[in-house]
Amino acid sequence: MGGTGMKRPQDARDPASPPRPATARVPQAWRPVDWLALCAVAAAVFIAYHPAWGAGFVWDDNGHVTRPDLRSLHGLWRIWFEPGATQQYYPLLHSAFWAEHRLWGDSPEDYHLANIALHVLASMLLYAVLRRLSVPGALLGALAFALHPVCVESVAWISEQKNTLSAVFYFASALVYLRFEARRHGAAYALATVLFIMAMATKSVTATLPAALLVVTWWRRRRISAKNDLLPLVPWFALAAAAGAVTAWVEGKYIGAAGASFSLGFPDRVAVAGRALWFYLGKDFWPVDLSFIYPHWDMASEGSSKFLYPAAFALFLGVLFAVRSRARGPLATGLLFAGTLFPALGFINVYPFIYSYVADHFQYLALAILSSAVAATLATAAHCLPRQGRMVYGILAAAVLAVMGSATFAQSEAYASAQKLWTTTLETNPACWMAYQNLGGILLGEGKAAAAIADFQKAAELQPASHEALNELGVAQMQAGQLDAAEATLRRALLLAPNSTETHLNLGVVLLQAGKADEAAMHLKGVLEVDPSNTKAMKNLAGALFQEGHPQDAEGLYAKALQADPDDAQAHSDYGAVLATDGKFGDAIDEYEHALALDPRLVVALRNLGAALLRGRRFDEAADAFRKATVLQPDSAPLFNDLGIALANAGHVDEAERQFRKALEIDPSYAQARRNLSAVAGHR
After folding, report:
1. Are the C-beta atoms of residues 626 and 642 closer than 8 Å to each other?
2. C-alpha closest to that of 452 among 430, 427, 477
3. Per-residue pLDDT tens digits for 208-256
4. SS (H, E, C) 536-566
5. pLDDT value of position 1
6. Do residues 115 and 161 lie in contact, with contact meaning Cβ atoms separated by under 8 Å?
7. Distance of CA 588 to CAs 453, 539, 546, 571, 647, Å?
8. CA-to-CA distance for 204 and 582, rounded, in angstroms?
9. Of 283, 414, 522, 638, which has the most beta carbons under 10 Å away?
10. Pseudo-torsion of CA 28, 30, 33, 34, nearest 10°?
11. Looking at residue 38, what is its pLDDT?
12. Helix residue ranges per DSSP H, 384-466
């Protein structure tokens, strides 16, 4: 859809002034060279994305790969008919993830290879569409799209399979519709419509397709017929409006794209849109300093200068409109580029705007349009050159594609792991608070709570309004044993988000560990009122009730929680402690043994099991449990003391004496061990 605007006879090869339908050339049949070109596209893409072949899951990938509760046939039904069951209501996307999980489970390598293959297929379909439209430089346009480093975010990030898969349906629908447009076969129209619906069920940004088809029609024919061109697309526009409305509703209700962070006035939204358009154009033509998360623009502090961006883009389109009689391609390209980007320009709230108003994956389809237009312009210009000039053009085009492929290769390396992605993000965006927050989360998952605290504190400093950063900081402080600091941090988080069940839950856990069982119970009960199936809240409320002296209530909650989540070793151990307090030592022993079957290194379960066996006068078994605990925790004086008691009761006085002495070596002030040592020494 490019063109130089040169005055020369119009023919089917002129993208600026294509012929009217009466003289339209029937697209040529595919030749072996065309299939060879597609093989070249596939090979180039797989080579360029080689670093992503063995990459892992990052950020929200685990939220898109099908959860255990959705892996059944009933789960598939929920994907389609229960909004909120999945992270976004894109039922065809999540059905694809559902099917993929059945094929290869949780293997990130296979998801990455599938996404690369979908990008290849989308690029091939783009090539087919361009050939159908007789656009010059079709192969160059498809290759430029396939190898452009801006696409890396969509291809190397598993969550963005929504982009690659929806693009396949988008281009397939466009291709079939163009066939319908030429021959007016009802079957082609029906198939194109089904493919369009499938595209929107994968990602609703594809709802811009009917408008794009009208622009293409105008570009090809200089006019739009209400009957032949507009009327067939009216149902598509209705479907597009419905898809957009559903997505906006889901973003606000289930994903959280609402509140102060999304309260921009319309003038500011216009300013964001204008700036975003220039931003994307800049990254497309000069793709350096690409970032997973770009800096968040503070529109309130920019004053009236922020309106220069939309004004400049409007002027740019005005110039293209003024020269449309000489060359319609540039105006068509501008309209297609801006129109395809429209859903992500800030007029509709989407959750990622809380981090940044722009993202590489927002412009995946728009980049295909721009790549095609630039390639068409260059190919048209090269056609006017002498033979030697065309050879130089081919060499330069190959060199540019090689540079793009190399940049894509390098950019793909950032997705090797979550930690690599966030550290790379901080190199291009040092003030990215969510990068620090996610790095802290990685450290916390590795048990490095003290190191995680520094990252969470940095995130909270950069984004004081983020209750999420404070919530994570509070959890890290709790795991590091800083209970007072954790309580204060989580209370600050609740001031920012009073209805956050996660923060209420974490505060309840902190208060429980601090011995404030009554206040902990208040927060935990509040969580269960909102989310009655929250097993973590059940377990901790049971612990609070136990501390308050209500073992029977605690027993019921533990039983209910473990029925829903039977693989929690700590909960089985805690349940055993409640049963032991109620005198049910046999049942308590069963729970401790169940806990240890799940986690043989759970010291508290070993110690409690030993205590219960002592009460049951099973002294040798008790000694065995305590001995295992001392191996796992060799600096615990109470464990050696308990082991000594079990051995003494089993009649192993000499060994018991050694264990009491070991306890006193660890803690010379341990009075109970000293009394026990004196007692066994007196019986020698």
Report:
1. yes
2. 477
3. 999 999 999 999 998 999 999 999 999 999 999 999 888 888 877 777 6
4. HHHHHHHHHHHHCCCHHHHHHHHHHHHHHCC
5. 57
6. yes
7. 37, 16, 15, 12, 22
8. 57
9. 414
10. 100
11. 81
12. 387-412, 418-428, 433-445, 449-462
How many Å apart are CA 128 and CA 346, to the nearest integer? 32
CA distance 514 to 509: 9
Q: Name, in order, each residue with C-beta under 8 angstroms of 203's C-beta and a sequence gap of 6 or more.
A: 90, 93, 162, 163, 165, 166
Distance CA 404, CA 219 (A): 29
pLDDT of 533 over the 90 cut: no
Could you read off the pLDDT of 95-154 as tens digits, one per residue? 999 999 999 998 999 999 999 999 999 999 999 999 999 999 999 999 999 999 999 999
Give the Cα separation of 9 and 15 in Å (integer): 12
Please check the confidence at residue 467 and state whether its pLDDT lies above 50: yes
Are the CB atoms for 199 and 166 separated by under 8 Å?
Answer: yes
Amino acid in position 33? V
What is the DSSP secondary structure assignment for residue 350, as one 8-state letter?
Answer: -
Query: Mind listing the pLDDT tens digit for each residue in 614-631?
Result: 988 999 999 999 999 999
- pLDDT, one tens digit per residue, over 620-660 is 999 999 999 999 999 999 999 999 999 999 889 889 889 99
What is the H or E stretch that residue 304 is in? none
Cα–Cα distances in angstroms (integers) from residue 651 to residues 611, 627, 674, 681, in the given order: 17, 16, 19, 13
In 3-state terms, what secondary structure has residue 230?
helix
The rounded distance, in Å, linking the Cα atoms of 191 and 438 is: 43
Residue 481 falls in which region: left (phi positive, over 0), alpha (psi -120 to 50) or beta: left
Q: How far is Cα 382 from Cα 3, in angstroms, rounded to an integer?
A: 11
Residue 115 CA to residue 425 CA, distance in Å, equals: 22
User: Which of helix, strand or coil describes residue 185?
Assistant: coil
Distance, CA of 358 to CA of 441 (rounded, Å): 24
Phi-psi region of 324 (alpha: psi -120 to 50; beta: other; left: phi over 0): alpha
Per DSSP, the residues of 393-405 read: HHHHHHHHHHHHH
Residue 29: pLDDT band (50, 70, 90) is low
DSSP string, 596-653: HHH-TT-HHHHHHHHHHHHHTT-HHHHHHHHHHHHHH-TT-HHHHHHHHHHHHHTT-H
Q: Who wins on pLDDT, 64 or 361?
A: 361
The confidence band for 21, taking pLDDT boundaries of 50, 70 and 90, is: very low
Write out pLDDT tens, residues 145-188. Answer: 999 999 999 999 999 999 999 999 999 999 999 999 988 888 99
Judge whether 96 and 145 are in contact, CB under 8 Å. no
- Helix crossing, 91-104 with 73-81: angle to 10°? 160
Task: Write down the residue that tokens 């397709």 correspond to.
Answer: 209
- DSSP assignment letter at 363: G
- Six-digit token pair at 595? 């806990």
Whether the predicted pLDDT of 35 surpasses 50: yes
Mean pLDDT value across the chain: 89
Mean pLDDT confidence for 440-453 = 92
Would the CA dihedral through 105, 111, 117, 123 be positive or negative?
positive
Number of residues that this document lists for the chain: 684
Task: Report residue 566 as tokens.
Answer: 């039977």
Dihedral sign, Cα of residue 223, residue 228, residue 233, residue 234: positive
- Evaluate the CA torsion angle 643, 649, 650, 654 in order and state its sign: positive
